[in-house]
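Problem 12. The chain below contains 170 residues. Write out its predicted structure in token notation.
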Amino acid sequence: MTGVNATAPSASPHRQDGESYRLSLPNTARSAGIARHFVASLLTGTPHSGIVDDARLCVTEVVANAHRHTRTSLIRVHVTVGREQVTVSVADDTPWTAPAAGATSDGSIRAGHAQECGRGLFLLEELALAWGSDVCGCCSPSHKAVWFTLAADAGTTARPSARPRTAIQA
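Solution.
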């Protein structure tokens, strides 16, 4: 069953003020497309309509990774639409499989396996103002969330380090 509801913003480190939406999806191949349409529908016709394509691409990659690399039963998408930026978080029930981009520290793509895998996170790194992952549940982790933040004027905003970071939350 797919559910959408408005909720209060999360308490994660990338918290921002704004309207908050959640979508729960079964772990199927169709989930990435559903998440893509969900995010696009939230941003189209808003001041963030200029980042719809980037948001669609990024959420597709993160949800597809959750589908491919976890056995979670549900993939949860949380979108916070703020005045200046949009943060999307995708959670699964596999807390210790942290994502890694397919790029080296100088920005080039690694040869071999990374040319087939990891390009989605490389795109995320290139398009997002910031991104990372959070392991939630502290001593007995229950899930992980991969998140990214986009801003319509990201080119003019000072971009923080977009290298992945992992935080453990209680």
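Discussion. Residues 52-69 form the longest helix (18 residues). Students who got a different answer should revisit the alignment rule from Section 12.3.
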